[in-house]
Amino acid sequence: MPGENLSRDEARERAALLAVDGYDVSLDVRSALGEAGAGDSGSRAPRTFRSVTTIRFRCAEPGTTSFADLIAPSVTAVSLNGRDLDPSEVFDGSRIVLEDLAADNELVVDAQCAYSRTGEGLHRFVDPEDGEVYLYTQYEPADSRRVFANFEQPDLKAPFRFEVRAPEGWTVWSNGVGSQADGVWRFAETKPISTYITCVVAGPYHYVTDSYTRTFADGTTLEVPLGAMCRKGLAPYFDADDVFLVTKQGLDFFHDHFDYPYPFGKYDQAFVPEYNLGAMENPGMVTFREEYIFRGKVTQASYERRTNVILHEMAHMWFGDLVTMEWWDDLWLKESFADFMGAFALVDATRFKGGWITFANRRKAWAYRADQLPSTHPITADIRDLEDAKLNFDGITYAKGASVLKQLVAYVGQDAFLEGARRYFKRHAYGNTRLGDLLSVLEETSGRDMGAWSRAWLQTAGVNTLTPQVLLDARGRVEELAVVQEAAESRPELRPHRVRVGLYRRTEAGTLERYSWEEIDVTGPRTVAVFAVGAEAPDLVLVNDFDLTYCKIRFDAASLETLKAGLGDITDPLARALCWSALWNMTRDALLPARDFVDLVLRFAGRESDIGVLQMLHAWADSSLVHYAAPGWRTTGERLLAEGALRELRAAEPGSEQQLAWARFLASVASRPQDLGLLRGLLEGTEKIEGLDVDQELRWSFLEPLAAHGVADESALAAELARDDTASGKRHQVRCLAARPSEAVKAQGWAQVVESDALSNALVEATIAGLTQPSQRELLAPYAGKYFAAIERVWAERSIQIGMDVVQGLFPGLQQSQATLDATDAWLAAHADAAPALRRLVLEARDDLARGLRGQACDAAASGSASTA
Which residues of 809-820 are buried (b: 16+ CB within 10 A; e: fewer)? Predict the structure, then answer.
């Protein structure tokens, strides 16, 4: 990555100097076809395509020097204002120097750009099932320069015209409407947009169409052509009708609330292979990871997640594409809003009415973790360069930002919030903004001091903790109920919180019901909730009932005992999810022994009605055992979880989502011979569980633990690949192969990922997932030292995405000891000058390890108490 970075200061200088009037981009991707060989492996020259770009731009200071961005193996020709420049003199591999600029300029660059195998730039995928080749682009934050010459920063917007020469029989899509003649696809000029949201998708994709029509109050009608596509091999599983249903529901929702018609013409959605992200909001041509097309039975939580992503990307058409942040400091202006509006639309416009439960349980868990890392940052972050930007697509920018916006809606009111959004779009359409631009319209519509709110919520880092204090009088009634607010010493900000405090008591029927609540403003270290005075003593006090604010909640002693005795008795599913989330945070914070959390899951998870919460509990229980349980208790914990999973699996309604979820959880915790034997019997058909359909995806889920424990060998995995000889099957097989308990297997997997760049991004991810089996700590121990010796080289030589995968995925976090912590500290001390983004990843991994060790100490201390044994 040397030379490919761009600093904020450089971007600001260039934006002050230049204004871009338009791009014409011509790509020739006919070279995408051909036999495997040159360009298909890291040991050969990269396979390339021709890229010719014409940029028309103005310069505020004629005679000065600037630069254009391009990452390409070679440049054939460069022309500036009719002058031919020597590519060897002006191009250094990532930048083209532009000297003696005129007031009006035209730059023409003819280059050979490289197809990608890491998901960045123009990614080329060969489907092993039928040999077909598929292309798509992915640019955020700055990889369009791998496909065409440009000014790669979000505030130099311009209209784009694309043309693409493609192999015969292919279809090509871009942001605008396209047409084909004489083997060339030409696309309508876009509105002014940023480089990182331009897009090209090309290949023999399976394509389905529909349309959306909306008539507005003024009598005008908007017609939007809709399209959805995937690889031909996935066509039998593609439920495009549901994708279109959600798309239309989302367009109606955003038209109702934003009062600004969808501005980008058509709306195509491509589900593409080997995608690094969940999705990307390219206007008119949204791209998604193809895993959102389900090859087997999944729970409604998976469909809800896909729906949320579709709506998230649609919200970006306004927040991010129509109005774009000036620089990545204000990434929250698009991602936080899209995350919040995606959940808002999910609940109000689709069948997934429990979306706020998922938000509270899953999205906020991501935010709470990120906000306690040493790398936490304000929502409006200090983004010095592109490497910083890449790492800031994190739980702070997305989930914390969305949570804070939910608090903002409670603070200013929904009507004022949405009216502010409407003014923001109309005032800044096709432009770029900073934090102050949004705050000013919200001040107009709400009458609130947004500066104070912003300083507290957007410009400081860290998460507050809210704990109830209950004082009872002699009659057993509430004499005082106060909410205590705390903050970490390193992040001492105490924020204003608009919360609903809920009081619960046990009914004659044995349920836990809310009998009183009040919305109050929590400020400072202690706030009294006057409404509760004189009320009957509550069995449970839930401080952030209804989940209005962003905080970690704790419980008073009586409430905690109530939950331990009857968490499953809470009838309100959102309140129950909030309690589960709070208990998980207590486990991570070494305030609740891991074995106690596991015990709660075993006793109450089977009664959980929300399937997404149930699957989250499974993940948390597994993580409790791997990271936070005392090593001496792990074997007991594994047995208890496997027994509990099997018990719930057999008790679940045949064919239900709960049955499927418990089957997958059993596979994730199976280690005993009898459990592995059951999984093997289910695969071979010698065992049956009524209603459980062991489809192909579930077969691979069962095979991984069998491979990891030495029950399924290479020949068994080869036979399964023959049964499922697809791209998805290949990824599963690679993961299972790397999971086998052998020194030779681990050495081979390490070499494939760390010492070679022959694997694609998807297979790197699969190999790392297979290598790092919690049951194989001893086999992985020799790689701790190798990790620290290799990561700086990997970071320097590989793409940033692969670098992140290796640094995060291969950190020796399973070697849970002070020695590993010391080795991490030694590397950090010796590499103070390493790339800041690399150091951040190592610091985050170190923090997870240290947190795990504290949790294990807490759990070990509970071994002699009344905790579960």
Answer: bbbbbbbbeeeb
How would you write 663-702 as a 3-class SS string? Answer: HHHHHHHCCCHHHHHHHHHHHHCCCCCCCCCCCHHHHHHH
**Mind listing the pLDDT tens digit for each residue in 742-759?**
999 999 999 999 999 999
Q: Indicate the pairing of strand 552-553 with strand 465-472.
A: parallel
Rama region for 760: left / alpha / beta (φ>0; ψ in -120 to 50; rest)? beta
575: which residues sit within 8 A by CB, 6+ positions away? 502, 504, 514, 542, 545
Residue 45: the pLDDT is 67
Which parts of the chain sit beneath pLDDT 50?
A: 1-2, 36-38, 41-43, 866-869
Task: Say how many Å lie between the first and final Cα of the chain, rounded.
Answer: 51
Residue 388: the pLDDT is: 86
What per-residue confidence (pLDDT) applies to 864?
A: 65
- Residue pair 231/223 in contact by the 8 Å Cβ criterion: no
What's the distance, CA 715 to chain centroid? 35
Task: Using the structure block, give the residue that is written with the tokens 């895993």.
Answer: 291
Q: State the Cα–Cα distance between residues 87 and 79, nearest whole angstrom.
A: 9
pLDDT of residue 44: 57
pLDDT at 37: 43
Is 313 one of the catalytic residues? yes
Q: CA 628, CA 748: separation in Å to the nearest integer?
A: 30
What pLDDT does residue 391 have? 82
Tell me which H or E stretch contains 133. Answer: strand 133-138
DSSP state of 624: I
Q: What's phi and psi for 293, nearest 5 deg?
A: -100, 120
Q: What is the pLDDT of residue 506?
A: 97
Look at residue 623 in the predicted model and tell me its pLDDT: 98
DSSP per-residue letters across 259-295: -S---SS-EEEEEESS-SSSEE--TTEEEEEGGGS-S
Instruction: Please provide the size of the chain in residues.
Output: 869
Indicate which residue of 274, 290, 313, 844 is catalytic.
Answer: 313
Q: SS3 string of 418-464?
A: HHHHHHHHHHHCCCEECHHHHHHHHHHHHCCCHHHHHHHHCCCCCCC
The answer to whether the beta carbons of residues 403 and 378 sit under 8 Å apart is no
How far is the C-alpha of 122 from the C-alpha of 139, rounded, in Å?
9
Residue 241 has a CB neighbour count (10 Å cut-off) of: 11
DSSP for 47-84?
A: PEEEEEEEEEEEESSTT--EEEE---SEEEEEEETTEE
* Measured distance CA(198)–CA(523) in Å, rounded: 45
Give, as one character, the DSSP assignment of residue 46.
B
What is the amino acid identity at position 471? L
Tokens (6 digits) for 483: 């909410």
From the list 273, 294, 278, the residue with the least C-alpha distance to 205 is 273
Two tokens, residue 68 = 């254009």
Residue bearing tokens 């008539």: 215
* H or E segment and range at residue 342: helix 332-349
The percent of the chain in helix, strand and coil, each rounded to the nearest 5, is 45, 20, 30
CA 385/CA 837 separation, integer angstroms? 10
HSE-CB for 596 with a 13 A CA cutoff: 29
Output the DSSP codes for 751-792. IIIII---S-HHHHHHHHHHH--GGGHHHHTTHHHHHHHHHH
Contact in structure between 539 and 558 (CB atoms under 8 Å): yes
Cα–Cα distance between 207 and 419 in angstroms, integer?
Answer: 37
Identify any residues that bridge with 506 across adjacent strands, giving them in sequence order. 512
3-state DSSP call for residue 612?
helix
What is the C-alpha separation between 739 and 705, in angstroms, rounded?
Answer: 8
pLDDT of residue 187: 98
DSSP 154: T
